[in-house]
Structures are given as C-alpha cells and as structure tokens.
From TrEMBL:
It comes from Hydra vulgaris (Hydra). The gene is FAM175B. Transmembrane segments: none annotated. It holds the Pfam family MPN_2A_DUB_like. GO terms for molecular function: polyubiquitin modification-dependent protein binding. GO terms for cellular component: nucleus. InterPro entries: FAM175. It comes from the Eukaryota. PANTHER family: ABRAXAS FAMILY MEMBER, OS07G0540200 PROTEIN. The lineage of its organism: Eukaryota, Metazoa, Cnidaria, Hydrozoa, Hydroidolina. This is BRISC complex subunit Abro1.
Length: 264
C-alpha cells in the first residue's frame, strides 16, 4: 500500500461521523454501506520566498450522508464480484452522489481485506459508478474481553486503478470555537449558505433529500397544493349545495302558491 496522499483531503461532518460510530458500536460483526457527497479540485500555487515552486492539484472530498445496507452481500458476493443490477435498484436517483463505500469489521486489522479490494476494483469498473476514484472508510472497533474499553479505529483510503492510498480525514464540527475551524465548517458543510443568503444551502438540501415528500413537481410545497385543492373542492361543493337549497326554496314557494289557489 502506498504512503499517505497529502493532496487529497476528506471532510466528514461531526454528526455523520457520530452516526458511523454508532453503527459500528451496534453492529454484530460486519456491516457496510455507501458514502454520499461531493468532490472538488483546487489548484494550489506553491510559492517560497525565493521563487515559484510549482502548481499542485488538491482534491477535496466532502461527505454529506451515508446509506447503510440492510444486509451484507446485498450487492456483491463472497469473491467480491459486484452486481450492477442491485446497485441500480438501491440508487434510483442518487447514483451521481455516491463517492465511496464503508466497511465495519469488529476486532480485525485496520487494513483492507482481499474481498474488499476486489469489491473496490469491480466498483471502479462498473457503469454505475461515474467517478475515477473511490473513497473507502474502514472502521475496526476493538472491544476488550471485560468490555471496559472500546477502541474505535478507522482509516480512510482513496482507491483508483493505480492502487490504494491512505488519506487524512478531518472531522468538521460546528462546536469548534476557533475562527479557522468555524470558517472551515462554513466552507465544507452544505447546511450553511452564504452571508447574503444563509438559508440557501439548507433549502437546497431539503429540496434534494425530501422533494418527493414535501414538494410537488413544480417546486411548490405539496402540502400547500393539497390544502388548496381541498379548499377548492370544498368551495365547489358548497356552491352546489347553495344552488340546491335555492332550487328547493323556489319549489316550496311554488307549491305554497298552488296550495293557496286550490284552497280558494
């Protein structure tokens, strides 16, 4: 395995990382899932006091959320062969957001197994996966025999056709008090927007994640559409009822006139 790649940085929001730790603590032995997020490439100029050293490309991978598989071997077999049909069934609309996978193995070494390497290799060659790299998070929690000490070890890897390289992982947390950390969170967290429109990213997140439940195809709030439709149907029914009442009152008046004439 190659040494750590310092040109690649992985950013994981604290609440997402906490969810993975919780899953690692609750899993029986083996668990896996998918990593959803985005990536961007920055051009960094390296300049010293004497001269310009060169240009370096820095890749940033920002994790947004995770999707746990209901059971192991849901999209691969014992040999690590990947079933593309199952992958497409799992991700009907979010395939482009999948940037990696994660594995949880209790009381094992913090290195990728042969089967996991085979899964990674086959994932990179599927038509489903649209990136040339794969982010892999490996969690290997260890429990002492007396269960008094729990150690949650984890490693991050960037996998390409050229091999597997370990990368550093930054846990971005809104609770950090330093100005640099707060700026870092604001840049990396999609829950925060710009100063001019602080809710822009939050609204975008809601529209992307919960569009089908809360928003109609036109982009308006589905609940408001349903309420308006119900109100319109109610008003239409009330108008029909009013016409029926007026017609009934007219019929009653006509009957009263006929009755009075017959009596006279």
């Amino acid at each position: 395995m190659a040494c750590e790649d310092k040109c690649v940085k992985v950013f994981v929001p604290g609440f997402v990382f906490a969810g993975l730790i919780k899953e690692a603590a609750e899993s029986e032995r083996i668990s896996d899932g998918f990593l959803l997020g985005e990536h961007r490439t920055k051009i960094c100029n390296q300049i010293s006091d004497a001269h310009h050293i060169g240009v370096e490309l820095e890749k940033e991978l920002i994790l947004h959320t995770t999707i746990q598989n209901n059971k192991s071997f849901s999209y691969y077999d014992n040999l690590g062969d990947v079933f593309e049909k199952q992958l497409k069934a799992i991700f009907k609309t979010q395939a482009e957001m999948v940037i990696g996978i994660y594995f949880i193995r209790k009381n094992t070494r913090s290195s990728l197994s042969l089967r996991e390497k085979s899964i990674i290799k086959n994932m990179l060659h599927t038509d489903f996966f649209c990136h040339k790299f794969l982010l892999v998070l490996l969690f290997t929690p260890h429990y002492e025999s007396n269960k008094a000490t729990h150690i949650f070890s984890y490693k991050s890897f960037i996998c390409t056709e050229n091999g597997v390289v370990s990368v550093s992982t930054d846990i971005i947390n809104l609770g950090n008090l330093g100005n640099l950390e707060m700026q870092n969170y604001a840049l990396k967290s999609r829950l925060l927007g710009s100063e001019s429109n602080p809710r822009s990213q939050y609204l975008k997140l809601l529209q992307e994640e919960f569009r089908d439940r809360f928003f109609s195809k036109t982009g308006s709030v589905a609940l408001a559409d349903n309420t308006y439709s119900l109100m319109y149907r109610t008003l239409f029914s009330m108008k029909e009822l009013q016409e029926q009442i007026q017609s009934s009152e007219t019929s009653i008046l006509e009957l009263e006139e006929l009755l009075n004439k017959s009596i006279q």
